[in-house]
Amino acid sequence: MVSELNMKFGISEALTFQSGAGGLVKALLRHVSGAEAEVYLYGAHVTAWRSPAQGELLFLSNKAVYGGGKAIRGGIPVIFPQFSGLGNLPTHGFARTALWKVDSSHVQENGDVVLKLYVSDQEISQSSVKELWPHRFRFTYSVVLSERLRTDIEILNQGTQPLSFQLALHTYFNVSAIENVAVKGLKGLKYLDNVKNREEGLNEESDVKFSGEYDRIFLQAPDRLEISDKTRTFVIDRRNMPDAVVWNPWIEKCKSLTDMEPADYKRMVCVESGNIVPSVSLGGGETFSCSQTLSVK
Question: Does 106 participate in catalysis according to the annotation?
Answer without folding.
Answer: no
